[in-house]
Design a protein that fits this description.
The chain has one domain (1-86). A hairpin with a 2-residue loop joins strand 2 (34-35) and strand 3 (38-39). The strands form 2 sheets. It has a two-stranded antiparallel ribbon. The mean pLDDT is 90. It is flat. By secondary structure, the chain is mostly helical. Helices cover 76% and strands 9% of the residues. InterPro entries: LapA_dom. It comes from Pseudomonas japonica. The chain crosses the membrane at residues 42-68. Pfam families: LapA_dom. Keywords: Cell membrane, Membrane, Transmembrane, Transmembrane helix.
């Protein structure tokens, strides 16, 4: 079972790498982004798209972690209030 899982994970990673490589090779058009008057140098389209993906993959879990911590804090505060009312 463990070997099957390892093979499936390896195949998934290879497929993901192949898709990213295909995306990069298909999007070689040069673009220059302008944000608030600041202009980037001319780079292939795949670069800003992949950067946006990586930033999103980093921010998503951080926001989820923040939500969980906030929820835990609210639960602790509710438990303290309940203990004060009972005690």
């Amino acid at each position: 079972m463990f070997k099957l899982k390892r093979v499936l994970v390896t195949l998934f990673i290879l497929l993901l790498v192949a898709l990213v490589l295909f995306f990069v090779l298909e999007n070689q058009q040069v673009v220059s982004l302008i944000i608030f008057g600041w202009s980037t140098p001319a780079i292939p389209l795949a670069v800003p798209v992949l950067l946006a993906l990586i930033i999103g993959l980093a921010i998503g879990p951080l926001m989820g972690w923040y939500g969980v911590m906030r929820h835990k804090r609210d639960i602790r505060a509710s438990a303290r209030r309940a203990a004060q009312v009972q005690g």
